[in-house]
Write the structure tokens for this entry.
Amino acid sequence: MNVTKFRSQLLPEGSIAYLCGMSKMIPENLLEIMVHNALEVQNDLGKDHEPVVKLHSKYGKAIWLLSELDTANNIAFGLCDLGQGKPELSYVSISDLESIRHARLKVPMVETDSGFEGKYPMSVYFEAAKQNKRITEDDALLRAAEKIIRDRAAFN
């Protein structure tokens, strides 16, 4: 997707972060892709998007792989894993994640993994997470999940 073209057609320069009320937790270029993905879904053009951003808890096991963002409510959609062995596809408030602070240190608890790159559709990450009871980026586990999905589709 051409992010520059998307930005110039729909929104003025720099307005995504403003619309979302975002701090700098998610870079603007990734926000733009997430908004574009959400618009595709709203216009029935939705597809199985790859995760755009990975957020994680600095001091815990929680991980969020997010692919879509509704700017009206600052709500993202993606694979959410609170580290309790039950990852799920769900919605999460970006504002709420940004507001989580360490009780003693008063530093943000959730941060972006700048090295993350979604290589598979969200359904593959979800299948792998269900199989392993946690979000994984292990390529072998993701390929196995991809095969499960392919075999399931061939059977139906």
Remarks:
- The longest helix spans residues 139-155.
- The chain has six helices and five strands.
- The two ends are 31 Å apart (CA to CA).
- Confidence is low (pLDDT under 50) at residues 1-13.
